[in-house]
Write a structure and sequence with these properties.
Elements (H helix, E strand, L loop, with lengths): L9 H62 L5 H14 L1 E2 L5 E7 L4 E3 L22 H12 L1 E10 L2 E15 L4 E8 H96 L6 H32 L6 E5 H18 L3 E5 L6 E5 H18 L5 E7 L5 E8 L29 H11 L3 E7 L3 E9 L17
Parallel strand pairs: 8-10
Antiparallel strand pairs: 1-2, 2-3, 2-6, 4-5, 5-6, 7-9, 10-11, 11-13, 12-13
Length: 490
């Protein structure tokens, strides 16, 4: 089939490459924002909660040890509690070493707070945060109900009493002394840590996103360049195939010319002989009536033979004329008639009968008439060369199918060897031992049939003759003819 202009397949490329890539990027970003980041926040908060719980238990163990020393009589309660207060006061942790522990009792009264000495020993039952929450009463209730637990409230930022921040603390009761010990984390610190981790992940994700975008752009660029190179290669291939087909046509024309030359030589010899005879008659001093009649007969013969030579040359020129590439509606029977006239005299020279058994049905098709004529002449020439004298070559058509036409060419020649059949349509393959052909005849025929979206098949055997069957659709979707010297793409 003639190759149309091939534009870049954007639709297919978008569906196969761009859309899946964009969906992957969207899913990747959605996964980061809606799954990974929230998971990081939750895991970070859980990790911090576990940390302050473990730290509180560690500080609680200090109280338990000193209380044990008290029970063993090593310390008085006052001494044990004093050491406990001093040790807890000195406990700090965190990046800035400002995180701390405090102790209040179940009343509640403050026992020790590193940054609020003004509260030491005071009744805290009425103390509330900016939201009105009775913070220390909440500590007592949590210990009474669960022995330990988490409490959220608002408290000053470390030693800065002017900055009040949300805080989450873990408190644990120490029953022997009626104390509650606890420590906490500021929510802003957790959020800052989460933001820091999220920022790192987002930066990595942004890098991946940029890489994927560049990768997608590279794929598009490479695909487009590859498509351009493919188009250029196709154009070059079409030019090469067009030149090869033209070479084969010229070779066929040369073979036709050799055949025609023999036939033209016969009438030319007759014309020359009768012209000389007539000249001799007219050179006599007295020309008789019977001589004039003979001269008239000679002139009539000369005119007939000259017209015969003219017809032979005209048909040869008709075949040589480049009209390939023009796709239009034609009557196939007319194309076959012209092709038969081109080659009929050559068949007669070998005493062969060229018969056209044409279906009288609808022969209208869309095709490149010049190319179809080239198919017929090439196949007929091959049939002539393969057929012995006295045989018949048949061209048969079948128009019963409304969507396609069927064309057969049958000879009773030497046939094609079985091992050669798979290769007869290969370029430069020929069964002829001489250099008469480039081996492009059937390859060109195959290409022309293909560009008409048709099929060609062959049935042959040595000594059984050959039958070619060509099927071509009636309606063609073909590219406009190329303007460069009537060339065409196969």
């Amino acid at each position: 089939m003639i190759s149309p202009y091939i534009s870049f397949p954007w639709r297919s490329f978008l569906l196969r490459v761009v859309v899946p890539t964009i969906l992957t990027i969207v899913m990747f970003i959605s996964g980061i924002l809606f799954f990974i980041v929230p998971s990081i926040a939750k895991n970070s908060l859980d990790r911090k909660k576990e940390m302050i719980r473990e730290l509180t238990i560690s500080a609680w163990n200090i109280l338990a040890k000193l209380e044990n020393d008290e029970r063993q009589g090593l310390l008085t309660r006052q001494q044990a509690q004093h050491q406990a207060v001093e040790q807890v006061r000195a406990l700090h942790y965190g990046q800035t070493v400002k995180d701390y522990f405090w102790i209040n009792d179940m009343y509640p009264r403050m026992v020790i707070h590193p940054y609020r000495n003004d509260l030491d020993g005071k009744d805290l039952s009425g103390y509330t945060d900016p939201d009105g929450k009775q913070v220390f009463v909440e500590f007592v209730n949590t210990v009474k109900q669960h022995g330990a637990g988490f409490v959220s409230y608002k408290w000053q930022s470390y030693d800065n009493q002017d900055l009040i921040l949300p805080k989450l603390s873990y408190v644990k009761g120490f029953a022997p002394w009626g104390w509650i010990i606890g420590t906490g984390i500021y929510i802003d610190d957790i959020n800052a840590e989460i933001s820091h981790l999220t920022g790192k992940i987002l930066n990595v994700s942004l890098g991946i996103l940029i890489f994927m975008t560049i990768f997608l752009g590279s794929i598009i660029s490479i695909s487009y360049k590859t498509h351009q190179q493919q188009r250029a290669a196709q154009e070059e291939l079409k030019k090469t195939q067009s030149n090869l087909a033209l070479s084969e046509k010229m070779a066929s024309l040369g073979r036709l010319s050799a055949m025609v030359a023999h036939e033209i030589n016969n009438p030319l010899s007759g014309i020359l002989s009768y012209a000389r005879l007539s000249s001799k008659y007219l050179g006599q001093e007295a020309v008789r009536e019977d001589v004039l009649a003979s001269v008239k007969e000679n002139l009539t013969f000369i005119a007939g033979e000259a017209k015969r030579c003219g017809d032979i040359v005209k048909n040869l020129l008709l075949f040589a004329k480049r009209t390939m590439g023009e796709v239009r509606e034609v009557h196939l029977n007319e194309v076959i008639d012209v092709s038969v006239k081109v080659i009929d005299h050559s068949a007669k020279m070998k005493d062969l009968t060229l018969t056209a058994e044409l279906d009288i049905g609808d022969d209208l098709i869309q095709c490149d008439a010049g190319a179809i004529q080239q198919i017929l002449v090439a196949l007929i020439v091959n049939a002539i060369e393969a057929s012995p004298r006295g045989e018949k070559i048949i061209i048969r058509t079948d128009y019963r199918d409304r969507s396609m036409v069927r064309l057969k060419l049958i000879d009773h020649g030497s046939g094609i060897p079985e091992d050669a059949l798979p290769h007869i349509f290969d370029p430069f393959f020929s069964t002829k031992e001489s250099n008469k052909s480039l081996g492009l005849g059937l390859s060109a025929v195959y290409g022309i049939v293909q560009r008409h979206a048709g099929t060609i098949s062959v049935d042959s055997g040595v000594g059984k003759g050959t039958e070619f069957t060509i099927v071509i659709p009636r309606i063609q979707t073909m590219a406009p003819a190329e303007t460069a010297e009537g060339s065409y793409a196969v």
